[in-house]
Amino acid sequence: MDIMLFHSAYGLRPAVEAAAERLRAAGHQVRVPDLFEGQTADSVEAGTELKEKIGKEELLKRAILAAAPYSERGLVYAGFSFGASVAQTLALGDDKARGLLLFHGTSDIAPNAVVDDLPVQLHLADPDPFEPHDWLTSWYLTMRRIGADVEVYRYPGAGHLFTDPELPDFDEAAAERTWSVALAFLDGLPDA
After folding, report:
1. Pick from 83, 91, 104, 75: nearest CA to 178
2. Whether the predicted pLDDT of 45 surpasses 90
3. How far apart are CA 186 and CA 182, in angstroms?
4. Residue of 59, 141, 150 whose CA lies nearest to 102
5. CA 14-20-21 angle, 5° bins
6. Mean pLDDT of 174-185
7. How far apart are CA 136 and CA 154, in angstroms?
8. What predicted TM-score, i.e. pTM, was given to this entire model?
9. Residues 147 and 114: beta-carbon distance below 8 Å
């Protein structure tokens, strides 16, 4: 699979590169655009400030420009937290998208979004302060209504970015379970 993997609000750090390498080792082509152009954050607050400084429109433009040269092949969009919201936005706007793999985050769904059985897999902490239960219920129902084939995996007791070994949220057991399920999801997607 060709995968476009977007980083979290912490920026493109070694943990994201390690995740990309894990996907490559499983036989996937992975591109990891740097939406922050070399800048990283050491806290969620600093990452939020960085996102706001760059601006939502500019970040989306950077993501679209990164994906555009490869989208004709049919990309799987993936991302971590903020990067998951970017991945979701791009996947729902790309009629050639082959899949959507979300780690730790979701995003608003455009009112006119429609997909044709897009395979979607979401992995979240339970509870997750950034993805409350009411929001997730609404998100899930809306994704199903627009035509997505959605699977949601919850990890009780894990912190928000529990797959990131560089952060205090890291939960090794939950992370390994996530990767096992995510890799099976990717292996199950139909070839182009």
Report:
1. 104
2. yes
3. 6
4. 150
5. 90
6. 98
7. 11
8. 0.97
9. yes
Phi-psi group of 83: left, alpha or beta (phi > 0 → left; psi -120 to 50 → alpha; rest → beta): alpha
Q: pLDDT by residue (tens digit) across 69-96?
A: 999 989 999 999 999 999 999 999 999 9
Instruction: Answer whether 85's CB lies under 8 Å from 99's CB.
Output: no
Question: In the predicted model, what is the mean pLDDT of residues 27-39?
Answer: 97
Own/partner pairs, 138-143, CB within 8 angstroms, 24+ separation? 139/106, 139/109, 142/109, 143/109
* pLDDT score at 192: 63
Calculate mean pLDDT across residues 41-55: 96
Q: What's the mean pLDDT when you consider all of the chain? A: 96
From CA 92, how far away is CA 148, in angstroms rounded? Answer: 9
Whether the CB-CB separation of 92 and 107 falls below 8 Å is answered with no
Radius of gyration of the chain (CA): 15
Residue appearing with tokens 């084939």: 149
> 115, 90 in Cβ contact below 8 A?
no
Cβ atoms of 171 and 155 closer than 8 Å: yes
**Residue ranges of domains in the chain, CATH in brackets:** 2-188 (3.40.50.1820)
DSSP class per residue in 103-155? ES------TT---SS-EEEEEEEES-TTS-HHHHHHHHHHHHHTT-EEEEEEE
